[in-house]
Predict the 3D structure of the following.
Amino acid sequence: MGEVSLATIAESVGTPAYVYNVDVIRDRYRRLDAAFAAVPHRIHYAAKANSTLAVLRLFRDLGAGADIVSGGELARCLTAGFSPERIVFSGVGKTDEELEAAVANDVGAIHVESLDELAILGAIAERRGRAVRVGIRVNPDVLTETHPFISTGQQGIKFGVPMDQMDEAVRRVTEQPGLRLTTLAMHLGSQLLDLEPYAAGVRRLVERVVELQQQGIETLNVVDIGGGLGIRYFDEQPPEPEELSAVLVPLLLPTGLTVHLEPGRFLVGSAGLLLTRVLYRKHSGGKGFLVVDCGMNDLVRPSRYGAYHDIVEVRPRGGEEVPVDVVGPVCETGDFLALDRPLPPVERGDVLAVLGAGAYGFVMASSYNSRPRPPEVLVDGARWTIGRQRETVEDLMRGESVAPIDD
Ligand SMILES: *Cc1c(COP(=O)(O)O)cnc(C)c1O
């Protein structure tokens, strides 16, 4: 990766280990940024895709803002040095404490997703005597072809304010003395591979923007088109950023508003991989298995979404490929990285790289089976550094007591 040997990294930090190529992240960001140059815009990196401090700092240094979905991510982004004004807070279930923290820090905007949330936020703003910038996340009711667990822009799912409640939501924001309606937002889902749903969603969003402008709501200055741009894991053909902007910019430009984007996966997904070492080979029921030292706790996407990740040898041996199930040590049959995957005859001790693991990889890792989470390494050209140390078993037991009832 870059000019650094992955075998050296595996030797030095052990396996499993996440490794990110900083150059790829920078390239992806600059390309998307350039694609939208024709319209005033800002990219808010969706922190939940990969919220390691060093990765967040990278985005801050590139000039990005951050899209967050929890108080934890707010703390991370502030620690990484984002100015609060460049943070937008999305999410369907913000707690009172999270809303309080966002208001106290005066974040750029809070995107509300329900009438109930509006009422709570209005009360907090009033009590604190603050003017809070509010976005309404609209559910534009657009069908997307992605995994049902990550499709978020249709009616009948939990996200966004439904179209038929929009008038009421706008009325309530404008009636609340502490709230300023600055943004209309949408987010259709993740790993989107077609332009058409984006165009349909933006058209609906822009219709609403025009209505609000006609009503004379002068605080409205941002239209946020969300994230979701897909990447190539197998043979997908995701739209290029220039194709996306070619379709969307003509729709957005006439509003005269600043455009916000909230990509996560697109910026970091292809930049990362997960190093794992082969522990054992075995045969069962006429099938070959490769048992590796990384499990569903380290990378959950294959078992959770049936996601495909390329797996390659770090030092290719060559030889004929034979289909095997690549499985981890976790005590679940659902613990696999790949099923029936043609792989060359690798052996115990060989290091493999699971590709496309930069987004929704480490952040979804758990310590299930009391397995400490992997370290995260950043590669920048010829240099590499550890962004996060490997967790220890002591870390996992922190805060527990052996006999709390006797204490
Ligand atoms: C998850 C999320 C994103 C980013 O999605 P990607 O598919 O990673 O680009 C953007 N906005 C919101 C509100 C999200 O919840």
Remarks:
- Residues 196-214 form the longest helix (19 residues).
- Residues 312 and 353 are 5 Å apart (CA to CA).
